[in-house]
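We store chain and fold; example below:
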Amino acid sequence: MSGVLLEGLVAGRSSRGGGGFRLPPLDLAIIPGELVVLIGPNGAGKTTLLKTLAGLLPPLAGSVARPAAAFLPPPGAVSAGFSALHLTALGRAGRRRWSPGLTADDLAAARSALDRLDVLDLADRPFDRLSSGQQQLVLIARLFVQDAPLCLLDEPLALLDPAHAQAVEAAIRALAAERRVVIASTHHLPFAARADRVLAIGPDGMEAATPARALAPDRVRALFGVEVSGCPCCGQALS
C-alpha cells in the first residue's frame, strides 16, 4: 500500500460572500501503517482537512497524492435500516463495477470483519437500532471489507462510553496494523497520546509532531486555553 504526500496543501472553504476560511499550507508525508491523529478546538478545520484528503472537498491550493480513501463520519452521522451484516457487506460495492446484489463472498467477508471486532452477534440486528458504540464498530468493520489503503475517521470516539471507546481504538489500530494510512480527528487526548504522530490545528497554524511534543502542557494551553498537569494518556506528572 502507498502512503500520503501533501505538498503545500491548503484546505478550506471558499465563499463568494467572504465567509470562507483557509488553513495554512501543509507539507506532510505519511507512510503506510502510520496512525496520525488531528487535534484542535472546535471549528479549527479538522473535518475540512479530512474531507479534503478524502476528495470530498477540493483543495484551495497545493496537491494531494494519496491512494484510494474511505471516509468515516462521526458517530450518529450514518442512519440505515439495513442489518449490520448488510451494511458491512456494502463496503465491498466499490470492488466491482456493477452487481445486482450482494454475493456470498461479500457476506462472508462481512461476517469475518464483524467477528474480528467481536460484534458478529449484531449481524442480523437493524443498524439504526444499535448503540453509538456498536454502530461505530460495525462501520469500522465495513472499512475492513472496503480495503481502502487510506482510512479517514472524523471524531471516531465521540459519544462513546469507555468500553466502546477502547474497542473502537483497538479496531483503528488494527486498520493501521494492516499497513493502511489512518488519519483520525479527536478531542480525546489520551487517544492522541497513543498515536504515531499528532497534527495540531490551531489559531497559530498547524504542526505535526510526536505525541509527547504536541501534548506538552504549553502546547495544550496554546491550543485549547486550558491547563494540564499530567500526561493525557496515563496521568503521570509532566516535568
Remarks:
- The chain has a mean pLDDT of 91.
- The helical segments are 46-54, 84-89, 104-116, 132-146, 162-177, 189-193, 211-214, 217-224.
- The two ends are 39 Å apart (CA to CA).
